[in-house]
Structure formats: C-alpha cells, structure tokens
C-alpha cells in the first residue's frame, strides 16, 4: 500500500563499517529475523541494537524473531549454538534505550530440545547433518523462536 504508507525501504546493516540504517529517526519500524545469534558471534550485538534505536522515530517499533535458548543459558551457549535467551535480547534492547512491549508465541516450537550436535543448524531448513537422523529433525521442524516487540520511547 505505497499510497498509504510510502515505499518500504529494505536495508542491510553491517557494523562496525556501516552503522546507519537510514536518516536518524526516519523509520517507523525495523524488523529482524534470526539474526541476533550472528551478531553475538561477531561481538557486535550492541551496535546493531543501537543502530535500530538511532534509525527509529520516537514511538517506533523494533520487532525481533530469534532462536530461543533455554532460560539461564550462558554466553558460551549463545556464541556456539545459534540459540539466544529472551533475557539477553531484552537486555540488549533495554541497553540501547528500547522499552519492551510484548511477546508472542506464534513462532514457538515445543518439539525443539535445543541440544543438537550442530546447534540450531541441525534442524531444518539447514539440516547440517544431511541424512543423519534426517527424519527425526524434519519431524521436529524449525527452531523454537521468540517473537518480541520493543518501542523507542516517545
């Protein structure tokens, strides 16, 4: 609906070299899907959340979908398995200045035990073990994911 909302702009953000998504306070919403674990592995998670904060207008929304680690998992788990705790995502968002609004279980998967030889990449769609226990991993399906909504204060 470009007439109502204007044209959507899709950007790629690559800290530390590129830390600006667009004009400061120019975006109404930013969404990220299954990326926080990559940022953790690169040691740049805070920079990404700060870039989102800078890009959003006051009252703007940040949506985060991420593979969910068991509560209480340590950084060693988050740096190696692809799973991240909800508490850590909320901590990163709060440190950047965001307020937590709500969560949804729309992407939850209780079949995901989160203890696989190749981390989250053992499950579909990657199936890193190829044909080893393939049917088991297909039956589990994709990862258990958190879906979180944050707001930049007005």
Summarize the structure.
Helices cover 30% and strands 21% of the residues. The chain is built from six helices and four strands; from the N terminus they run αβααβααβαβ. Helix 3 packs across helix 5.
Characterize the structure shown:
- The chain has 154 residues and is α+β, with helices and mostly antiparallel strands.
- It is built from six helices and four strands; from the N terminus they run αβααβααβαβ.
- It has a domain at 24-112 and 142-151: Vaccinia Virus protein VP39 (Rossmann fold).
- Strands 1-2-4-3 form a four-stranded mixed β-sheet.
- α3 packs across α5 (86-96).
| Gyration radius from CA atoms, angstroms | 17 Å
Q: Work out the helix count.
A: 6
**Main sheet overview:** 4 strands, mixed
As residue ranges, the low-confidence spans are none
Provide the helix percentage: 25-40%
Mean pLDDT: 92
Structural class: alpha+beta
Superfamily at the CATH H level of the domain at 24-112 and 142-151?
A: Vaccinia Virus protein VP39
Which sequence of strands runs across the widest sheet? Answer: 1-2-4-3
- State the oligomer: single chain
